[in-house]
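Researcher: Go.
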Amino acid sequence: MTGHIRQRGEGTWELKFDVEADPLTGRRRIRYASFKGSKREAKIELARLITENENGTGINPTRATVSEFMERWYRDWATHNVSPTTLERHRILIDKQIMPHIGQHLIQKLRPVHLAELYGELLRDGRSGAGLSSRTVGLVHRLLHRAFGHAVKWGVVQQNAASNVAPLA
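Model: Structure:
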């Protein structure tokens, strides 16, 4: 695999590197990353990214939203691994609490602060204006923690955003 560094501004670099060819078309695939620091540090980062991709540990950047991932997780994992009652509860939480609030976020850009805002908003507002119970917000947190844990295992994200936030203060 090869790579290239291009200066974009003062101390800002564009890292460009090849990843494996597209299995369907055989066409070359290229990844880009931005880096801030010295040229030497940029070269080290480029080498790290190339090595990660060669070893198969690199995360493939995706434009998937939280909604798209949650639908995939529900379809591919939850439907086969939880009881029908739990599955029904997951569907309600995903549709009514998760998707309207954080569904539009890109899953790779989701941070613990977004989840803290979600939990606060659910406790404050809810659908009826009175807010949801702390138990329901805890269920939302556990559902997100489990789903994002699978996102880490599946290589969609590097870390579980729900691991670093608690649903209640």
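Model: The first helix runs from residue 39 to 55.
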